[in-house]
Amino acid sequence: MGRVSISPRRAGVALAALTALLVSGCSAEPERPRPGPSPSASSAGPAPTPTVAADPAARAAALVGTLADEDLVGQVLMPYAYGSSATKVSPGSAAGNRALAGVDTPAEMVAKYRLGGLILVGFSADDPTAGNQATTNVDNPKQVRELTDGLRAAAGKLPAGSAPFLIGTDQEYGVVTRITDGVTLLPSPLAAGAARQPALTEAAWRAAGAELAAMGINLDFAPVADVLVTRSTVIGSRSFGADPANASAQVAGAVRGLQAEGVGASVKHFPGHGLSATDSHKDLPVIGQSRAVLDRTAFPPFRAGIDAGAMAVMSAHLDVRAVDPGTPATFSRKLLTDVLRGQLGFQGVVITDGMNMPPAKRWSPGEAAVRALTAGNDLILMTPNVGQAYAGLLAALRDGSLPRARLVEAATRVLTMKFKLADRPAPALSGLDGPAHRKAAADLAAAAVTVLRGRCGGPIAGPVTVTSSGGRDRTRGTLTEALTAAGVKVVPSGGTIVHLVGYGDGADDLRADAAVTVAMDTPYVLAAAKSPTLLATYSSSRASMTALAGVLAGKARPGGRSPVPVTGLLATTCGT
């Protein structure tokens, strides 16, 4: 499958020209072009002009010209919903949907509000985004595919139904991974940053894109482009690291990989959540660095993602004092329109971070949606009340406080992205977690393993006892299996101790008697470890544990380099 050929930057000029024809209103006019047929439509009747058929921006502008105000507003909303099926939900999920949108099921929500898309949510115990994940929609690939098929069936009946329905999720890999069963799990972005091989990153994320597409997901809220300037638990291993150049190369690789398989990439969290340790799921982080620091540190990975053709950028709830003090970036025209579009040249879809997060809830759902759209966002994500957001946008459109030109522009951008994603069917589920995909994940994981203290290579003295901080029994079992397969004898106690620590662990979770301590998330905790050998995998995935076993068995050389500085330790003892 080929890559999407039209970049958001190049499409901008055509989109602006087409949008200008539509901003005066949406009433029917004799000369207005009609939208092209959907891929499943009959071929009977006159064919659209070649330009409209070939150009997603032209198709989008033509379709926008046929839509009522209610359809335009629906296209810029992407809420979450309760339930694991589009049409059949539990009583509890129905109650959640009624509170959120006044309907019982996700399919009814799509129909009532003429939605442009829906985000699938869910979380795990170590997920730093759990605070705004009120429900879960995901269980296994078959269930997800049935859900996405049901959502598309509902959306296909809408006036905008010739454009593919957007279904997104946060499949970042590592601590934020919505779908974990039955899929290939990549090592975390920080592991990719340690590997420093963008080609491996691109191959792994291409495998991820193919699997998301097979489940009916066509938009991934990834990769994270935040440079990890500060020690942060909310970003942490979700980032590719502290070096802007290395992070830029990794972001570009991930974008290319996803979009090669027909899944839109949304780089996040603009203008850079890694510059503050404050969690925007709880409070409004203040970004106090100068504009010069932003230009050389925070912006390069976003620019790299844009240059790689990223279809979307997610705006963040961040108070960037050097540009627009006191205004969260999500609501800042200076940041989204002047900087992101004007200076970084992005012409794709700007998507808000979750509008159910505290910094966005200082306003009512309707007012917040209007403010976000006016600032330059094109898609409103996870509003806390769909009905109020929808009504607020309609009211603002009709009283003039939301300029029609801005709504038309936003809807046209969203539909352009949809038509770019429209040229391929979903792959078969049978390809999930296949050998080629597992190899791509394994190659990336193997290149990431880093020695921060101790000998570079050679087998560990056996037998080995694997221990871990609390709650990591499954990962400990995975490493035990991998060590055994690699020929290392593992015993319940008394052997050479290999101790595992991960997300959220601190000095109290270390073992003073461990011969080897392994960091499976950010490696900062290793600064306090006493072990003569310190390793980092930056990830607890099966691929990462298998790669670690290869190093401990002396069968693989650890070539990774820590992508973040760790006090008192070299980035690697294995040379440069």
From TrEMBL:
Stretches of Low complexity bias are at 39-53
Show which residues constitute the signal peptide. 1-28
Q: Which residues form the Glycoside hydrolase family 3 N-terminal domain?
A: 105-416
Give the top-rank taxon of the lineage listed in the UniProt record for this protein.
Answer: Bacteria
Region Disordered: which residues? 27-53
Q: Which InterPro entries match?
A: GH, Glyco_hydro_3_AS, Glyco_hydro_3_C_sf, Glyco_hydro_3_N, Glyco_hydro_3_N_sf, NagZ_Beta-hexosaminidase
Q: Identify the Pfam families for this entry.
A: Glyco_hydro_3
Catalytic activity field: Hydrolysis of terminal non-reducing N-acetyl-D-hexosamine residues in N-acetyl-beta-D-hexosaminides
What SUPFAM superfamilies does the database record attribute to this sequence? (Trans)glycosidases
Q: What is its EC number?
A: 3.2.1.52
Keyword annotations of the record: Glycosidase, Hydrolase, Signal
Single GO MF descriptor: hydrolase activity
What PANTHER family does UniProt report for this protein, alphabetically? BETA-HEXOSAMINIDASE, BETA-HEXOSAMINIDASE-RELATED
Which protein family is named in the record?
Belongs to the glycosyl hydrolase 3 family.
Protein known as = beta-N-acetylhexosaminidase
Q: Name the species this protein comes from.
A: Micromonospora coerulea
